[in-house]
Write a structure and sequence with these properties.
The complex is a heterodimer of chains A (about 300) and B (about 160). With about 300 residues, chain A is mainly beta. Chain A is built from 4 helices and 14 strands. In chain A, strands 1, 2, 3, 4, 5 and 6 form a 6-stranded antiparallel beta sheet that branches. Chain A starts with a helix and ends in a 6-residue tail after the last strand. Chain B has 3 helices and 5 strands. Chain B is elongated, with a radius of gyration of 18 Å. Classes of the chains: A mainly beta (about 300), B alpha+beta (about 160). The structure holds zinc ion (ZN). Chain A: Pfam families: FAS1_DH_region, OB_ChsH2_C, zf-ChsH2.
Chain lengths: ~300, ~160
């Protein structure tokens, strides 16, 4: 299968993450001490009157922390666009996988940190133990007072978390309010209820407090027969949403009563759905707490 | 001082209890405020059972392990790590290292100006593996400049 998203993601290779980024703070003894305390590192080189920073702090000097001033990572630009594309594709989770650092010169308190960072590569879609997504590699050169002090290759997986057994995200819950509660009560009773205007007789769906034709607030709920035809449809391939496994068909179904409703068309391969296809209502329990009115082809023999 | 190591030598291991405090302190000391490293609820919402250690802390612990075992005076030149299973609170990380190779340090000593010109003359490449109860947390390679000059003998009290 062609990976259209990857074609797009690849165009970000070689584009900058940060240009002339500046570390929020110069190299300093308090941050060195906090680091050593956290790591339990008692190397005497990192303390005393003339300490050097632990070399493995290299990346820490470049990070924006909570995103205050100097936060190069949050600026608009290709990197943020790339991350937004991945997010939109359902890759909402991130995990760092590789860190390769070379230390060219020791960092000492007072050194002013600047850095340039580029998107080195974006992998094709990969399925891992955690989920499916893309590996992104960035390459950063870190300078101290303008002099190259180290290089940093960083790789992370931006991914859509895999649903573990029984742990798949649930479908969205319906928002039930005063105006549509009767519809959901109908669903609970395995009835597809539409409204009929008491004044002009016009059927309507979805549920609304008043008639769109005559404005009357009076109506009666009537059960639909459940017969309908596919008025229009789309087959969702991408982007993936939690709880929905692509490809799947979303149809605009014209009911025999003359109103249209949006639902899934199930019981047929999505690519075999056609406009005009006769369908019938079926109540499907999609999880422990949710039953939905879906549609399947009326003529089972045809599929 | 530790005698100069040779290829194949196995370094004494280091055991690091993975406490919640270490995970949070490491994340904050490395200025990494991703919520999965300090907020258990946020971590669970993203599919992890609990907060887990960030890569910078793992990197720092690998660096500490090598200089603990080969220092004082050992200077890290390269640290390259790959993460496997996460470090969750309550687990224990066991770091082990094996000397891959020893070679002459070709870099001039002027960039380590605090030390005399020939104080750092050998580079060791060390293979590092860190395991916890879930499996391999980290595998990596560290290049470290070794001190060859003997420190002055300390008189026993
Ligand atoms: Zn009406």
């Amino acid at each position: 299968m062609r990976d259209d998203l990857h074609d797009l993601l690849k165009t970000y290779e070689g584009r900058p993450v940060a240009v002339s980024g500046r570390g929020p703070d110069p190299v300093n003894s308090p941050m060195i001490r906090h680091w050593c305390e956290a790591m339990g590192d008692t190397d005497p080189a990192y303390t005393g009157p003339d300490p050097v920073a632990p070399p493995t702090m290299l990346q820490a000097w470049t990070l924006a922390g909570l995103g205050g001033p100097g936060g190069a990572q949050v600026r608009p630009g290709p990197y943020r666009e790339l991350m937004a594309l991945l997010e939109a594709a359902g890759c909402t989770a991130i995990v760092a996988t590789d860190c390769e650092q070379e230390y060219l010169r020791p960092l000492r308190p007072g050194d002013v940190i600047t850095f340039d960072s580029v998107i080195a590569s974006v992998s094709p879609r990969k399925t891992t133990r955690l989920g499916t997504g893309h590996f992104v590699t960035t390459r950063t050169e870190i300078r101290a007072n303008g002099e190259l002090a180290g290089t940093h290759l960083f790789r992370f997986l931006k991914y859509a978390p895999a649903g573990r057994a029984g742990d798949r995200p649930a479908r969205p819950r319906p928002v039930i309010n005063r105006d549509n509660a009767g519809f959901w009560e109908g669903v609970a009773a395995r009835e597809l209820l539409i409204q009929r205007c008491d004044a002009c007789g016009r059927p309507r769906f979805p549920w609304l407090p008043g008639c769109g034709d005559c404005g009357s607030p009076d109506w009666t709920a009537v059960p639909a027969s459940g017969a309908g035809t596919v008025f229009s449809y789309v087959v969702m391939h991408h982007p993936p949403f939690p709880a929905f496994e692509p490809p799947y068909a979303v149809g605009l179904i014209e009911l025999a009563e003359g109103v249209r409703m949006i639902s899934n068309i199930v019981g047929v391969e999505p690519e075999r759905v056609r406009v005009g296809m006769p369908v019938v209502l079926e109540f499907v329990r999609v999880d422990d707490d949710l039953v939905l009115p879906l549609f399947r082809p009326a003529d089972e023999g045809a599929v | 001082m530790t005698p100069a190591p040779s290829p194949g030598d196995v370094l004494p291991s280091l055991t690091v209890p993975i406490t919640r405090t270490l995970i949070v302190a490491g994340a904050i000391a490395s200025r990494d405020y991703q919520d999965v490293h300090h907020d258990a609820e946020a971590a669970r919402a993203k599919g992890a059972p609990d907060i887990f250690m960030n890569i910078l802390t793992t990197n720092g612990l690998v660096g500490r392990y090598i200089t603990d075992r080969l220092g004082p005076g050992a200077v890290l030149r390269k640290v390259a790590i790959r993460l496997g299973v996460p470090n969750y609170p309550g687990d224990t990380l066991l770091l082990t290292g094996t000397i891959n190779s020893i070679c002459a340090d070709e870099r001039h000593a002027e960039d380590v100006d605090r030390l005399s010109e020939d104080a750092l003359r050998l580079l060791a490449e060390v293979a590092v593996v860190g395991t916890n109860s879930l499996g391999r947390h980290v595998t990596g390679t560290v290049v470290v400049a070794l001190p060859t000059a003997q420190p002055p003998l300390r008189e026993s009290p």
